[in-house]
Each structure stands twice: as C-alpha cells, then as structure tokens.
Amino acid sequence: MTPGDVEAFVALAQRPGEDDLAEAALQLARIEYPGLRADDTLVLLQALVDRTAAFVQASAAPGDAVGHLQHLGQFLFDLEGFTGNLSDYDDPRNSFLNDVLVRRTGIPITLSIIYIHVGRRIGLWLEGVNFPGHFLVRCKGMLGDVAPTEDLILDPFHGGIVLTERDCARILSRHAGEGARFDRTLLAPAFKVHILVRMLVNLKRAYAKLRSFSRARDVSDLVLALDPTSLTELRDRGLLSYQMGHYGVALADLERYLALTARRTRRNEDDDSELKEEFEAVWEHVKNLRRRVASLN
C-alpha cells in the first residue's frame, strides 16, 4: 500500500459513524491488490443490497423484524450462496471483501461485515460482536408492527443461525479451552476500528503461515497506524523484519518494545510470569540483532 492508501484507510477507520464499515474493510485488499478499484466492488455490494431488499420485501410482512432477519439469511446463504470457508480457512483471500463477494466464501468476520452491511440497509439493527475466536453479529431488539423482538446473536459463518448463550459457551471452549468461562460481557458490541484491527490481525496470521513476511509486516504497519500503542504489534513487526533480514529496522522496533514493556512491568504490581518469559525471549533476539548490526558496520 502507498502512503496515500494508508492515510485513506486510517481516515475511513477513524471517521465517525459505522455505516462505512464495508468501505473501510475493502481498503485492506489494497495490500494484495494495489490497483483495486474499490468503487467497482461497492457497486457489486449495492447490487446485492438491492436484490436482498426486493426479496425480503416480497417475502416478509412490513414491520416483522424476525421475518426480515430470517429472509435475509435465506437470501444471502441459501440463494446467493455465501458460506464459511471450512476447507481453506487460512487463505488470505478470505479476508478481502472483494474476493469474498466474488467467491461467496470467507471467514466469520468478513461474512459478518457483508451481513451487517446488507442487513442495515434493509432496516435491521445489526452490530458486530468481537467474540473470542469467532466473530458474531447481534440483531438488536426492535419494536415491529408484528411483535417486539429480543436481541439475537447470529453466526454468519454458519448460515446466519441464531445462537443461545450455551452455544456461545461451546464456541468459547472450542477456541479458548475448556477452562474458559462464558460471560455476557464477551458479547459486547464491536465498533468499526475494533473490527478493522481484528481483520488485520487475522490477515497477518494468514500471511505469516504462508511465510509471506513482507505482506505480514505491511499488515502490522496498518495496525500500528490505527493503534500506535499496541505493544504486541510493535513486537510482531520487529520479529517480521528480523525474518526478512531487515536487522536495523527489527532492532529499533524490538528495543522500543522492551523499553515500553519494562516500563509497564514496573508499574504493574502483579507478577506476570508469561510477560517476563516473552520479555526474555525478545531480549535474546535483541542481543543477536545487535551483534548482526555491529558486524555490518
């Protein structure tokens, strides 16, 4: 991405309001597709909205929020064919909205963004849920002409099915281990910047698994542009630069990470053994990098 692309992405991410989430998410695809014409994809997305609206209006009674929700799912997943990519979950294309629209498959967060975008434009009050390990969607309770509705938690990765709290607890155990305890605070709404950061972290991991370290570092740059205080991203960017043989850049990031982590550790009264182990591991990398950089001078 060019510096101009990064600036445009950050401006969209930080612009007040949530209705341009899909537009902001689409900008991430420039990491892989520098010449992407975002407007062309937005036209396809609007055409999907128009088709969905026509189907739902013909199928559900006015004011029937639950009916609108059911027919939204039927149209997107049964008729348009959107589905979770179980066979190739780590494919980076699952994180790019332009690819998801064309291929009709993606990961929970990209399918949720399309679901939210379309659903909001047919009158449903939808919001993202940053649930651990598996992004979800909430349909807020609405007072329709037919009957009041309660909040519903939905899973667009699995066809928009409605989840109970017990279902959510099972998902949590699957991703965080049997010892993880479900709490309703885990269903708090996710806003635009949080969603974009999560998309970027998913994409970084996908690239790292493919050993595409240059692309992964580009993603880290974007995360840090959105959240300059992220120590995890500062560390990861340094380690990715190390893998690429960019030793001076790696050393600068990792030394800054150590300095900030040490400061945080001094302020923290708890004995965080995991953080200390990580600190020691990064310190070993820094010592190696200092020797490498010195040998090049």
TrEMBL record:
Pfam families given in the database record: TPR_9, Transglut_core2
Regions crossing the membrane: none
InterPro entries: SirB1_N, TPR-like_helical_dom_sf
Domain of life of the source: Bacteria
Residue span(s) of domain Protein SirB1 N-terminal: 49-200
Family the entry assigns: Belongs to the UPF0162 family.
Database matches in PANTHER family: F-BOX ONLY PROTEIN 21 (PTHR31350:SF21), SI:DKEY-261L7.2 (PTHR31350)
Protein name: Protein SirB1 N-terminal domain-containing protein
Organism: Luteitalea pratensis
